[in-house]
Amino acid sequence: MVEKKEVIRIEPWSLAKVMAAIGFLWGLIMGIFGAIFFLISSGTPQWTMQMANTTASNFGAGFFAGMGILIIIVAPIIGIIAGLLGGIISAVVYNIIVKYVGGVKLEFK
């Protein structure tokens, strides 16, 4: 027998923790892709300067490589912060709106 229940309230901190974990994972995935992009790009300034027959600057290569390492650290942190704030705001808004339109109905077995 399937039992239907309605979610009438979401605890903001509970949702925030789950959203922060999801944000961390997304940030880590995006950070890895960003790092790959920046590390590939780190060779581009030198390569383009060689193609133009001019002296290549190592500043461009070092900058892009540094950004690749930095983004893999910063992106998950931003994901955690965004997840926490997004979870709290979403739960508070849900708790206000549910009074007027009703809650989400879930089925349990």
Could you characterize what this model shows?
A two-stranded antiparallel ribbon has the order 1-2. It has one domain. Helix content is about 75%, strand content about 10%. α1 packs antiparallel against α3 (about 60-100). The chain contains three helices and two strands; from the N terminus they run βαααβ. The protein has helices at about 10-40, 45-50, 60-100; strands at about 5, 105-109. The longest helix has about 45 residues, at about 60-100. The N and C termini lie close together (about 5 Å). The relative contact order is 0.26.
- Give helix % range: over 70%
Mean pLDDT: 85
Structural domains: how many: 1
Strand order of the biggest β-sheet: 1-2
Radius of gyration: 23 Å
- For the termini, the CA-CA separation is 6 Å
- The parts where pLDDT drops under 50 for at least 5 residues are none
Strand content: 5-15%
Strand runs, count: 2
- Overall 3D geometry? elongated
Along the chain, the helix and strand elements come as: EHHHE
Number of distinct helices: 3
Biggest sheet character = 2 strands, antiparallel
